[in-house]
Design brief:
Layout lengths: L3 E4 L5 E5 L5 E6 L5 E5 L5 E6 L6 E5 L5 E6 L5 E8 L2 E9 L5 E5 L5 E6 L5 E5 L5 E6 L5 E5 L5 E6 L5 E5 L5 E6 L5 E6 L2 E7 L5 E5 L5 E6 L5 E6 L2 E7 L5 E6 L3 E7 L5 E5 L5 E6 L5 E7 L5 E3 L1
Antiparallel strand pairs: 1-2, 2-3, 3-4, 4-5, 5-6, 6-7, 7-8, 8-9, 9-10, 10-11, 11-12, 12-13, 13-14, 14-15, 15-16, 16-17, 17-18, 18-19, 19-20, 20-21, 21-22, 22-23, 23-24, 24-25, 25-26, 26-27, 27-28, 28-29
Length: about 300
C-alpha cells in the first residue's frame, strides 16, 4: 500500500495519489494556507480568508454547501452561517469582557448560557429550556461539586496529583479510586466490591480482577496490538497483518472471523464463522458505497 506525495517549494503537500491511482490535489495562498482541494471525482473544497485579519471567512464542501464565518471587533467568532439554497442558518456566540463565551444561539433561536467564577472557570451552564447545572472548583481547578440538571449533587475528592480518589453520589453511595506509581488506575471500589487492574511494563492492562475474584487477562504484540483476551470461559486471539490491521479473530465459542483490505487500507471483506461474507465497495474518494452479504454458498443475502 503506497501513496505518492508531491510538495511545492514551500513544503506544502500539493498532491497525493493512492495505490489505486486516485489523486487529490491542493492549492495554497501566499501565506501557505490551503485554499482549494480537488478530488479524483472532480469535486472540490474551498476555503476563503478575510483580507483584513486573516481569519477564515468561508468554507465550501464537496457538495457545494457554503459556511460563512463572522467575527467581532476582538477577532472572536461571532456567527457561523450555513447557506442552504436561498436560506441561511445562523449560530451566534456572545462573550463577556474577558473573552469567556457567555451564550450560543442556534438557528432555531435556542440559547445556551454559561457563567464563570472569578478565575474564568465554568460555574454554571443553562440550556434553552431553562435546565441548568452548576460547578464548584478547588484552587487547582478540579470540580469538587457538580449539581446536575435534576439538582442532584455529586461531590469529588482528589489526591495531591489532582486525580479523582472519591465520588459521592446524591444517595450517599461512594466510588473510590487508587492509582499505581505511574498514574494508572489500580483499583475501583463501590458498593459491589473492588475491581483491581494490573499492568505490564508498558502500562498496558494485563489483568483485571473483578469483585467476585474472576479474572480477565490480556496479551499484546510488540506493536501494541492486543493479541488475546482470556476470560473464565476461554481465550479469544487476534492476529494482525504487517500494517497492524486486524486479520483474524479466533473465538472459543463462535469460531474464526477473518478480514481483508484493499490496497489503500479500506476493509474489503469480513468472513464470519458460519461462512457468511460481507463485502465492502468504495468510490474514488474511499467512501463506502455498497455492502453485500453472501452466504457460505456465495448467494447474495443482502446488498
Amino acid at each position: 500500500m503506497t501513496d505518492t506525495l508531491g510538495y511545492d517549494a514551500a513544503g506544502n503537500q500539493v498532491s497525493m495519489t493512492d495505490a489505486e491511482g486516485r489523486a487529490v490535489n491542493s492549492e495554497y495562498d501566499v501565506l501557505n494556507r490551503r485554499v482549494r482541494t480537488v478530488y479524483s471525482d472532480g469535486s472540490l473544497t474551498e476555503t476563503e480568508y478575510s483580507e483584513c485579519c486573516g481569519q477564515k471567512a468561508s468554507d465550501t464542501d464537496q457538495g457545494g454547501k457554503v459556511t460563512r464565518y463572522e467575527y467581532d471587533a476582538a477577532g472572536r467568532l461571532k456567527d457561523v452561517i450555513q447557506v442552504a439554497e436561498s436560506a441561511e442558518f445562523r449560530t451566534s456566540h456572545g462573550y463577556d469582557g474577558v473573552g469567556n463565551r457567555r451564550f450560543q444561539t442556534d438557528p432555531n433561536a435556542n440559547t445556551t448560557e454559561w457563567e464563570y467564577d472569578n478565575l474564568g472557570r465554568v460555574a454554571s451552564r443553562t440550556l434553552p429550556l431553562g435546565m441548568s447545572e452548576s460547578f464548584v472548583h478547588d484552587p487547582n481547578g478540579n470540580v469538587t461539586e457538580k449539581n446536575d440538571f435534576n439538582d442532584d449533587k455529586i461531590v469529588y475528592e482528589y489526591d495531591e496529583n489532582n486525580r479523582t480518589v472519591k465520588k459521592t453520589y446524591p444517595d450517599g453511595s461512594e466510588v473510590s479510586f487508587t492509582y499505581t506509581p505511574t498514574g494508572q488506575r489500580e483499583t475501583v471500589t463501590d458498593s459491589g466490591g473492588t475491581t483491581a487492574y494490573a499492568y505490564d511494563l508498558r502500562d498496558r492492562v494485563k489483568e483485571v480482577t473483578n469483585p467476585d475474584s474472576t479474572k480477565i487477562s490480556y496479551t499484546y504484540d510488540d506493536a501494541g496490538n492486543r493479541t488475546s483476551v482470556t476470560v473464565p470461559s476461554g481465550t479469544t486471539t487476534y492476529t494482525y497483518d504487517a500494517l497492524n490491521r486486524l486479520k483474524r479473530v479466533t473465538d472459543p465459542d463462535n469460531g474464526v472471523t477473518t478480514y481483508t483490505y484493499d490496497r489503500v487500507g479500506n476493509r474489503k471483506s469480513v468472513t464470519y464463522p458460519n461462512g457468511t461474507v460481507a463485502e465492502y465497495m468504495y468510490d474514488r474518494l474511499n467512501r463506502l458505497i455498497k455492502l453485500e452479504n453472501r452466504n457460505a454458498s456465495g448467494d447474495l443475502i443482502s446488498g
